[in-house]
Design brief:
Helix content: 55-70%
Radius of gyration: 12 Å
Largest sheet: none
Number of helices: 2
Number of strands: 0
């Protein structure tokens, strides 16, 4: 695994987590479902490539875990 690929996965995961938090805050059920899928896909991708994601980047909202 190259450092650039790992950094890209981490950045995409950070953005997905932020999108999920925003969707929860907005109360948009469809946006929550889409954001949850993206977050889970990125978590699977990180695990598949042994990329450790940061624990949390500023507090958890409902359903968002690293």
């Amino acid at each position: 695994m190259t450092t650039a690929v790992a950094a890209t996965i981490r950045e995409r995961a950070r953005a997905a987590r932020q999108a999920l938090r925003a969707a929860h805050r907005s109360g948009d059920a469809h946006a929550v479902l889409v954001a949850e899928e993206e977050w889970e896909d990125l978590r699977r991708l990180a695990r598949a490539h042994s990329v450790v994601l940061p624990e949390d980047d500023g507090g958890e909202d409902e359903g968002v875990k690293a």
